[in-house]
Design goal:
The structure holds two protein chains of two kinds. Chain A has twelve helices and two strands; from the N terminus they run αββααααααααααα. By secondary structure, chain A is mainly alpha-helical. Classes of the chains: A mainly alpha, B mainly alpha.
C-alpha cells in the first residue's frame, strides 16, 4: 500500500504547490508553469480595500467564535461528561453529528427565514454570522473536550480531591481546567481554522459589509490567475498555521485522532 | 427524560439511591455534583443551540408545510430535481467509495509505520480537514483544469486536454475534488482500528496455509467492516450536503441537489415553500445516511 500513499501525497500536495507557485508568477497563460517572479499579486491583495475589510471581518468573526465556543463549550462538555447517562451520551452524539446531518446550506436558509422577519431583522449583521459559526464549530470542540475528559478519567481525580476535602470550586479550577488545557487549546484552534475557512453558511448570511474572506475570495477566481492564487494562498497559510499550532500545543497524534468527523 | 429523572434521584438522593439499588454498587462515591448544577453549566450552550439552530430549522419546517404537502409536490414535479438527485447520487457514490478505498490503503500503510513517521504523515494528511472548499476548488482548477498542470502533462502524452478538463466539471470530477477533504476523514476513522488490530492473526492464518489474500479477506476485513461502513456513510453525508467546492468549480451549472437549493435561495422571487421542502428533503437524505453509519458503529462496539 506504500505506492497508494505515495500517489495520495502527490494528489495532496500538487494543488497546494501550484497555488504557491502561481501566486509568485508574473504571467501564467497556457504554459506548464508561470514565468517571471513577482510579489505584485500579494501587494495587490493587501492593498485591495474589499479584501482588507473581509480579512478584518473574518478575524473578528473567528476570534469571537472562539471566545464564545470556549465560554459555553467548556461547561457544556463538563456537564455532558459528568451526566454520563445513556440518554445524554446519545444526545451528545447527535450534537456531534449535527453539522453533517443538517447541511450548513439548510441552516443558512433557516437563518434567512428567521432573521429577515420584522421581529428579528438581523440578516447581514456580524453577530448573526458569529452565531452561525458557533453552531457549526462547537460540536468539534465539544467532542474534543468530552473525549479528553474520558481519556483522563477526570472523575477519579475529582473524587480523590473531594475525599481530601477539595471544594467544588477548587476542583474545577485546580483539576478540571489544568487537565483539559491541551485539548481546549487544540480544539479552539480547530474552531478558529474552521471559522476562517467557512463559506457555505457565510455566503448566504453575510451582508455586503460583513462579507468574510472566503466570500470575497470567490469573486477573485474570475480575475487574474496570479491575484486569485495569492488571495487563496493567504487563506491556505492561515489554515496551515492553525494546523501547526494545534499540533504543537497538543500531542500530535491525539489531536489528529480526536477529529474524526 | 426518564433517564435524567432517575439520574437526579441517583445523585440527589445520596444514600437513599444506594439503598434502593443494592444490586448495582457504585465503583466510585458520587462526588457531590447536583443535576441542577450540571444543567446550569449546560444552560448557555443549550440556549445558543435553541436560538441559532432549533428556531431556524423550525422555520424551515414551517415554511415547507405552509400549504400542506403541496410544496413537496412542486419539488417532485420539477424535472430539475430528478436530474439533480441523479447528479448528487453519482457524485456521492463515486467520491465516498473512492475515498474509502484510498483512505483504507493509506491507513493500512500508516498503521505499519513507526510512530514518528506516522505522526508526521498524519499531520500532512489531516491538513485538508480545516481547508476551505474554495482552496480545494482553485487548486484543482490549476491542476486539472483546461490549462492545468496535470492536464498539460497528459496532453504531452497525447490526451485531449479539452476532453480531460471537461471531466473535472462533471459529477465524477467534482467527486474527485471532494475526495481531497473526504479521504483524511476516512484515514482518521480507520487508523485507530487498524492500529488495534493484532497483526499476529494474519501471520497465524498464513502459517496455517492461508494465502495473503485469504488472510486479509477473512480476518482483517470483517474486523474493520463496521468502522469502514461508518466512515463511508459519514463522508457520503458530508459530500451529499456540500455546495462550496462545487459552486467555486462550476458555478450553478451542474445539477446536484445542494446547488439547486442554493440557486433557489439566492435568486429573487423564488418559491420559498418549495425551497424549504427541498431543504428538508436534503436534510432527510443526509441524516438517513448518517443514521445508517451510526447503526453500524453501534454494532461494531458490541
Amino acid at each position: 500500500m506504500a505506492w497508494v500513499t505515495a500517489v495520495y501525497l502527490v494528489y495532496l500536495f500538487v494543488p497546494m504547490a501550484l497555488l504557491l507557485v502561481g501566486s509568485f508568477g508574473e504571467i501564467w497563460f497556457g504554459t506548464l508553469l508561470p514565468s517571471n517572479f513577482t510579489t505584485r499579486w500579494y501587494l495587490e491583495v493587501i492593498n485591495d480595500p474589499s479584501f482588507r475589510r473581509a480579512f478584518r471581518v473574518s478575524l473578528e468573526v473567528a476570534v469571537s467564535t472562539c471566545i464564545i465556543c470556549v465560554v459555553i463549550g467548556l461547561p457544556l462538555a463538563y456537564a455532558i461528561y459528568r451526566a454520563a447517562s445513556r440518554g445524554i451520551r446519545a444526545a451528545a452524539r447527535v450534537v456531534y453529528l449535527l453539522p453533517i446531518a443538517v447541511p450548513p446550506l439548510v441552516l443558512a436558509f433557516g437563518f434567512i427565514l428567521v432573521f429577515s422577519t420584522d421581529m428579528l431583522p438581523f440578516l447581514g449583521s456580524v453577530w448573526l454570522l458569529i452565531g452561525g459559526h458557533v453552531i457549526l464549530t462547537l460540536p468539534y470542540l465539544l467532542q474534543n473536550l468530552v473525549a479528553d475528559m474520558r481519556h483522563l478519567r477526570l472523575m477519579e481525580l475529582e473524587v480523590a480531591a473531594e475525599s481530601l476535602g477539595g471544594s467544588l470550586r477548587s476542583r474545577l479550577l485546580d483539576i478540571v481546567l489544568p487537565s483539559v488545557r491541551h485539548s481546549l487549546a487544540s480544539g479552539t484552534i480547530v474552531v478558529a481554522a474552521l471559522s476562517i475557512g467557512e463559506f457555505q453558511l457565510s455566503n448566504l448570511v453575510a451582508g455586503f459589509l460583513s462579507r468574510t474572506y472566503p466570500i470575497v475570495l470567490l469573486q477573485a477566481f474570475y480575475g487574474a490567475t496570479g491575484f486569485a492564487c495569492a488571495a487563496t494562498v493567504i487563506l491556505l497559510v492561515l489554515a496551515l498555521a492553525a494546523s501547526m499550532t494545534g499540533t504543537v500545543s497538543a500531542r500530535a497524534t491525539y489531536s489528529a485522532r480526536s477529529l474524526p468527523t | 427524560m426518564t433517564a435524567t429523572a432517575q439520574r437526579e434521584d441517583h445523585n440527589g438522593g445520596g444514600s437513599r439511591a444506594r439503598v434502593q439499588r443494592p444490586d448495582r454498587p457504585r465503583l466510585l462515591p458520587s462526588s457531590g455534583i447536583k443535576r441542577r448544577f450540571l444543567l446550569a453549566l449546560a444552560g448557555p450552550g443549550i440556549l445558543v443551540f435553541a436560538f441559532f439552530f432549533f428556531i431556524p430549522i423550525t422555520f424551515v419546517v414551517r415554511d415547507a408545510l405552509t400549504d400542506g404537502l403541496d410544496a413537496f409536490r412542486r419539488v417532485f414535479q420539477n424535472p430539475i430535481f430528478w436530474s439533480s438527485l441523479y447528479g448528487s447520487a453519482m457524485l456521492t457514490l463515486f467520491s465516498s467509495v473512492f475515498s474509502l478505498l484510498v483512505g483504507f490503503a493509506v491507513a493500512l500503510h500508516l498503521s505499519r509505520l513507526g510512530p514518528r513517521l506516522r505522526s508526521a504523515l498524519l499531520f500532512m494528511i489531516a491538513l485538508p480537514l480545516t481547508f476551505s472548499g474554495l482552496i480545494i476548488a482553485f487548486g484543482f482548477i490549476l491542476t486539472y483544469g483546461r490549462a492545468g498542470f496535470i492536464t498539460q502533462l497528459l496532453a504531452f502524452a497525447g490526451l485531449d486536454p479539452v476532453m480531460f478538463s471537461r471531466l473535472l466539471y462533471s459529477p465524477i470530477g467534482l467527486g474527485f475534488a471532494a475526495s481531497y477533504y473526504l479521504i483524511p476523514r476516512v484515514v482518521m476513522l480507520l487508523l485507530p482500528v487498524l492500529l488495534n488490530f493484532e497483526g499476529l492473526q494474519l501471520t497465524a492464518a498464513e502459517s496455517l496455509g492461508a494465502t495473503r489474500r485469504q488472510a486479509l479477506l477473512d480476518i482483517l476485513i470483517p474486523q474493520i467492516l463496521p468502522t469502514a461502513v461508518t466512515a463511508l456513510c459519514l463522508v457520503a453525508a458530508v459530500v451529499f450536503g456540500a455546495y462550496g467546492t462545487a459552486l467555486a468549480l462550476v458555478g450553478t451549472r451542474l445539477n446536484i441537489l445542494p446547488l439547486q437549493l442554493y440557486s433557489m435561495i439566492s435568486e429573487t422571487g423564488t418559491d420559498f415553500p418549495a425551497a424549504a421542502a427541498l431543504a428538508l428533503v436534503l436534510t432527510a437524505i443526509c441524516s438517513s445516511i448518517i443514521a445508517v453509519g451510526e447503526i453500524f458503529a453501534a454494532r461494531g462496539e458490541t
